[in-house]
Amino acid sequence: MIKKTISVLLCAVIAFAFTACADSKKDEQTEEKAELVYNVVDSAYSSYDASAVSAYADLCKAVCKGEGSVRFNVGLFDKVIQLFYTSFPLNVLVKDIKKNEDGSGVTLTYKYEQALVISKADDFTTKVNAAVKDCKSGSASKRAFAIKAYNYTASGVTKTDAEDATVYSTIMTGEGTAQTVSGMLTYLLLQGGISASTLIASDASGAGWSVCLAELEGDNFLLDPTTESVANGGTQLAYFGMTNEDAAGEGLSGFMFSNRASAPACDNPYFDICRQCKAWEISKDGKNLLVTQNNDEIVQVAL
To answer: In this structure, which of 48, 116, 218, 267 has its CB flanked by the most CB atoms within 10 Å?
Structure first.
């Protein structure tokens, strides 16, 4: 009888151990699954109240999980939808968003089966997080991060005129229009904690163009990763940290936010040394940008 009791107890202990290990492994997997920073928005909409941004973040989280409904005050619907379609690249996975008749929130339908939605969202999240982590390595400076994110974007994309290009497709495939390439950079900067926006502009011929507006240490700068990519394969910084005057010299003008409001002036010449950039590197301590000029002189600027 005693032997039988001991056997039963041993079986119970072993079963508990397996269950505990399984639960522990499940918890580890849950903890390790990467997530985006959901409440980041294009700076054109930075004045929106916290409740609208919170509802928008809930909507973004739901899309990443392929969920069919989200509860929030539908009085915020217009603002939430505007944020969703201007600031969240994974909006391309959604077919439709409708208000619930009882006012409890919204119902979502997708372009793909739930498993595929989740898979696409996970792949996107993994890629964005890896890029942000890589661009943040070696320096705590936001300027350094912005430079690396700019280089990551400009050197990793090919300009296309495809009308179906989106910020999502540009991040995942490396091909995009001026608008989606700038949108890619904007999203990376936002994920990295920098206030940024995708601006609409016109080039010298009057055709549409797009650049990124980034706020670095309290000053606004224009970043044109598409021209950088086309002009030199994205390896330099000739179009990073531009002022309005610099941009005008390249034939760009008429900068507006996506909501058609005028963009703020960019007039700080902090990155003037980049206009004649032949090569660049960030110092080993991460505190300075070293730019090799066209005359081979190396100029340093603090980050």
So the answer is: 48
